[in-house]
Amino acid sequence: MGELFDFIVRSRNFILFVLLEVICFYFIINTSNYWSATYFNTSNRYAAQMLAWSNAVGEYTQLRQVNADLATENQRLNQELTRLKQAQPAAPAQYKADSLFANRFKYTVAKVVNNTTQFANNYITIDKGTDDGIQPGMGVISPTGIVGKVKICNRHFSVITSILHSEFLVSSKLIKANEIGTARWDGVDPNLVKLRDISRIKPVSKGDSVVTSEFNSTFPPGILVGRVRSVGVEPNQTFHDITLNLSTNFGNLAFVYVVQNLLRPEQEQLEKQLEAEK
């Protein structure tokens, strides 16, 4: 208290000056219509600017929750879209998938906590593990397309083998040509992959869409892999040399969806039984 009193005594002249300035300013504003209007217009402008800044900061701090909410909503929509596609596949009119087959894919939304793109073999870490039902072998997609496959898990985290991996292969289909091939990264550009095993007699054009095919148990069919960037012919081969623009941007990957095929163990068990009998 004594220090505060000493400060007031030492600064009494300055405090008196500020007080007189405030009183003068008050009288000027209240005795002149011009200065009164100028003051209120100026103060309102700065108040509005401060409010706009405050709202912008508030909206920015809420972006994380907004993104999480959008990811959850996309998860629900992906699951519903997959169910509808599987219930009414491109097949003869007399064919109808049963409800168990149509609902075999289950989606779990997860946040990316680590991601590499600069190596020959790249991996992604997410914040969901076995406690959330994640298991090795499950497919992983993004809101825009394919991402990879779960490699290992613990209770709270999982590591995904990215499509940007030298050994990652995915059965893919050219929609227009209705031709099945294999998408594989060549280890060069993280935005591009190669589509192999497409016969050179099949018509392929720049911009054609490539999606996951029906011939795998990891991904739902119809998930976008990429679009044709360039088409050539492999030397001394009967196949096209096709480069795709990846549909997923791995540089800003924030949320992914882990896909569980509920019927996969049953399918694989039957196929292994057939192999054992050969």
TrEMBL record:
The keyword rRNA-binding does not apply. InterPro entries: Cell/Rod_1 (IPR042177), Cell/Rod_MreC_2 (IPR042175), MreC (IPR007221), MreC_beta-barrel_core (IPR055342). The chain crosses the membrane at residues 12-29. GO terms for cellular component: plasma membrane. Residues 60-87 form a coiled coil. Keywords: Cell shape, Coiled coil, Membrane, Transmembrane, Transmembrane helix. GO terms for biological process: regulation of cell shape. It comes from the Bacteria. Residues 112-260 form the Rod shape-determining protein MreC beta-barrel core domain. NCBIfam families: PRK13922.9-3 (NF010532). PANTHER family: CELL SHAPE-DETERMINING PROTEIN MREC. Belongs to the MreC family. This is Cell shape-determining protein MreC. It comes from Fibrisoma montanum. The gene is mreC.
